[in-house]
Design brief:
This protein is mostly helical and about 325 residues long. It has 14 helices and 7 strands.
Amino acid sequence: MSEDVVTADSIGKLTRKPSFVAVPIKSMRTDAVLNAELYIRIAPDHYVKYRDKESEFNGRIRSRLYDNRHTYVYVKIKDIRAFSKYLEGNLKNTLDDRSVNIHEKTALLYETTTYLMRGLLQDPSSKEDVKQSKRIVDSAAEFILSNPDVLAHHLELSSVDYYTYTHSVDVMTYSIMLGKRIGLKDGEEIGNLGQGALLHDIGKTYVDQAINQKNGPLTDEEFTEMKKHPGYGYDALKKTDELSKQALEIVRHHHEDLKGTGYPDGLDSDRIGIEVRIVTVADIFNALTTRRVYRKAFQNFQALKMMKETVGEKIDRRVFREFVKMLGDV
């Protein structure tokens, strides 16, 4: 049987369980131990081990790979959680490095956070992985808020297809920028917002994958099951004791609405905090503007027009207005 390969932009597309994740060489940290075996692809279905997990990746190895026309290396799916920690070790130093351009920094942030989510979705109750998510969100928030052009570069990298992994990263980025515009403070407030946004859909891991990957609209019974994912995510993450109350509320309540007809708790507007309202807007917009197997992606203007019709009922008027302005600034 041939091996499947999945990149950050194609994770979730395959029906068979993939064996490898493709990692852009440009995102690799030099002079650090890999934490995972590296493979190179020498034929469409043939991969050979290139480096042991105890090996160091350095500039000489990177140059040799480029000389041999490799732009990706490959990591086994089972090793992606360990490998994401290796990538994280390079993140803050690269984001602080003035010699690296903003597009490359944004790409590294996108890749690192996507691989983190890939690992977390294997085990949402992993205390260490949830800790790691906070470190990455803190680095991401500092970078995003100090670089007004990040959103434009992020939009170039975003997948047009909907996958939980990339969707989570997109919602985090939108939410951090929107939270700043709304008036949340740098540091703890923005950090809680970003972590809740990144992890908001983690509960989908506990939903039957046949429902998650269904090639068409859900039946009433399937939707009833899907509606349980905020509670699943909340329960799993609460057990880690690593998330703030605000972040946990985002995970549990991002599908509540101002009319009190949302789920899982049917909260009325007085009980829905500003952080949840921010993530709800970011979540809906990204879901509408990414392609599903059963429908095309809506253009930004179409999505905003659809969202405007629900202002005051499902989404917050002020948050929506600031979101539209934020996109207009790109």
